[in-house]
Amino acid sequence: MNAPFDGLELGYDVPALPGMDEADIQTPCLILDLDALERNIRKMGDYARTHGMRHRSHGKMHKSVDVQKLQEHLGGAVGVCCQKVSEAEVFARGGIRDILVSNEVRDPAKIDRLARLPSWGARIIVCVDDLANVSELSAAAQKHGTTLECLVEIDCGQGRCGVDTPSAATAIAQAIAAAPALIFTGIQAYQGGMQHLENYVDRKAQLDEAVVRVKAVVEDLRAAGLKPELISGGGTGSYYFESGSGVYNELQCGSYAFMDADYGRILDRHGHRIDQGEWKNALFILTSVMSRAKPGQAVCDAGLKVQSVDSGLPVIHGRDDVKYVSASDEHGVIEDMHDVLRINEKLKLIPGHCDPTCNLHDWYVGVRNGRVEVVWPVSARGKAY
Amino acid sequence: MNAPFDGLELGYDVPALPGMDEADIQTPCLILDLDALERNIRKMGDYARTHGMRHRSHGKMHKSVDVQKLQEHLGGAVGVCCQKVSEAEVFARGGIRDILVSNEVRDPAKIDRLARLPSWGARIIVCVDDLANVSELSAAAQKHGTTLECLVEIDCGQGRCGVDTPSAATAIAQAIAAAPALIFTGIQAYQGGMQHLENYVDRKAQLDEAVVRVKAVVEDLRAAGLKPELISGGGTGSYYFESGSGVYNELQCGSYAFMDADYGRILDRHGHRIDQGEWKNALFILTSVMSRAKPGQAVCDAGLKVQSVDSGLPVIHGRDDVKYVSASDEHGVIEDMHDVLRINEKLKLIPGHCDPTCNLHDWYVGVRNGRVEVVWPVSARGKAY
After folding, report:
1. Any CB–CB contact under 8 A between A380 and chain B?
2. Tens of pLDDT along B65-78?
3. ipTM, interface predicted TM-score of the complex
4. Does the CB of A134 have a partner CB in chain B at under 8 Å?
């Protein structure tokens, strides 16, 4: 076992190296089931293509140039969306050529950095929900001799960012269209608030309302002589609604590629959990049992520092006999009524919420047929600026 | 404002540089109030010294060689404790010379790495709660020609790791004492389960029970001819109990240095919150308002990727007029009933739980008198192996 850890002996902390047996991976770490990942990516790509939709995969979930490239090459993704300028910088450096910052950028230094990015060879699109932002973006793009594309963000019912009325959207769109170095490209219309509702009909009802809002904005824009090129939105819990809406033309799904415990529990239109066929769990936290000083209980090495529990505790994959019942900083307590777990036994945890969990890690260890095939950096890990 | 961001323009993502005005710090990021930090560190150091206790500051909280050195130089800390071999490696590389891994290490590759560390010039101590671990540690230390010191971990009532009975503790201690290349150094007796109980008397009651357990183990060890050098434990919610116990001689406090919202709410023996005098908040998440498309509400740029909400939402420091009410991946929603917040206005959030929040960040920005004085790496960020 020592030879593969030369990297670690040099202080180069990677949990695994390509070619290593899966059993030798150091825990806790993130592992990707490459067969499941590629299957999910191909499936979403096929869906988008057969439904005439563009798919812009959401890089805020994986924060990985390598996963994004797989989504483009295997899944036909047209580009990436992300939430922060620092993420956009990582994707641009990594060679991604069509980048939407699906969020507002208001800080002067961040606007300046964003406006430099088109000169790195990438199409850069950003969201706007405030008229005052238009002149800021325009000035920065002019300063750098670049062009920024803009989507007007509308609130689809989540009640967070985005304008509420067609007239507000049109006023911003007109300002963008008139501003030097900016292009009015379309509408950001993501309904994030309904993605995790368990029942299909509840999700559909909320997305139907969002579609009404989007159509009203599109009509108002057209009346003002503006034609949105992109109407972008949709997530893993809703993409079929946007695809069938007749108004959206671009999807922004993220979690479908990895899946997680919270998303996995929502139901498709047949009443089946979406992790039981629609998508496969491709992301796991690999953890080891490191203490079992109490009968009926084991302690593993995966706690709050390797996962976000905002959407609930992780689920132990493929095991009905043991249950992860509490998390502290570095430990997970596992109920093990029949004392079946052994010291150093490895378990695969399906994290409660994939996005903030991935953001805690430096590496994805990609496995197939019991072997480590790739070790990918979480390229934009920690990029929150 | 551009000049200080040359670092950022090169893609070197730091939120600030020393000498910069506090107002120019890029958000979201962690900032340290250096006056408050130094005051907390000196205060705990004074307490330990005047009470005849060693203080081994807990590096799992800050994961920073620089903060640890401040704790040693200003606060007289005797060394560090941490939870993972990879953290111990970082502290050893950083020049810390007395390191306790206050946790069990069972994986063969991790044991091998741990056993190398004394040759880097550091005293290395590790916890044991299973007889089978003794021969593993001994073999690895012999292989590397080093010596590992061991504490027997006893369960003080938290019900996680650690043995339950004096006889089990003594059996392990005897095995350690008899094993080549190991030294029996004492007892790890941290009661983590009671640290966050709100009331002083409730905490005292649980710690009183822990002291009974510790004394029983010490008596049993002495009857077997074993003399523990260190009886180590204690946290920010309990250190006065261990100090007055007559049996503990080493404290392991961590959160006192930074404070957080969840710890801040617990009460001292006078019924005062511990963040209202006993300790000062030194750690904040600096965040900016980036959208306010709705009346009564602002949205800031600090969500789940820059903080752990396992112990509750953050509290906005020094503001009674606005309230952080929900967190999503990249956004925080702030209730702002009177619409006082402006775009790009900065707020200081006291995180709910400092340890897993610090672990999300690459940098501490240390500020004093409105200026950035230091920018320290979160040296062991992500070191979970």
Report:
1. no
2. 999 999 999 999 99
3. 0.95
4. no
